[in-house]
Write a structure and sequence with these properties.
By secondary structure, this protein is mainly α. It has helices at residues 3-26, 34-46, 51-58, 62-74, 96-117, 122-143, and strands at 78-83, 86-94. Helix 2 packs across helix 3, helix 2 (34-46) crosses helix 4 and helix 3 (51-58) crosses helix 4 (62-74). This is MarR family transcriptional regulator.
């Protein structure tokens, strides 16, 4: 790939992905911001976790995560439990209400995305499907 073409990919790809993510967020307005939804999704995926460890995984400060956890607890999406490894600490776990929220949100966003994918040509859909494994690899590499 030539230098101008490489620059085009490295500047256009993050913009396109961010615009897609923002558009999907608008399909289902939520009282939660993207950081809170990401934290809730991480708790769902990782299982009970200390807020400090959650802050590290999400790349935010502990004080920011304290605010996020408080918001999620206030919405009954997270619950605290004692950390069996350290009685002075606590873990947060997703609640049934948190599970239901994420499931509903994913369903609405998937439906909106499917409606747009249905408008693409078969070649455009094939191009997106072919790019997915590479995008997933990039995401994994950048996250580590």
């Amino acid at each position: 790939m030539t230098a101008p073409a490489q620059e085009s990919v490295t500047t256009r790809l993050p913009v396109a992905l961010a615009r897609l993510q923002r558009a999907l967020r608008r399909t289902e307005p939520s009282e939660l911001g993207p950081g809170s939804i990401a934290a809730l999704s991480t708790v769902r995926r990782e299982g009970p976790i200390r807020p400090g460890d959650l802050a590290l995984r999400e790349g935010v400060t502990p004080s920011t995560m304290t605010r996020i956890v408080s918001l999620l607890e206030g919405n009954h999406f997270l619950a605290r439990e004692n950390d069996p490894a350290d009685r002075r600490a606590y873990l947060v776990r997703i609640t049934d209400a948190g599970e239901a929220f994420l499931t509903r949100l994913a369903g609405v966003r998937s439906k909106a995305l499917q409606a747009e994918l249905d408008q693409l040509t078969p070649d455009e859909r094939a191009a997106i499907e072919a790019a997915l494994p590479v995008l997933e690899t990039l995401a994994t590499r950048l996250a580590s």
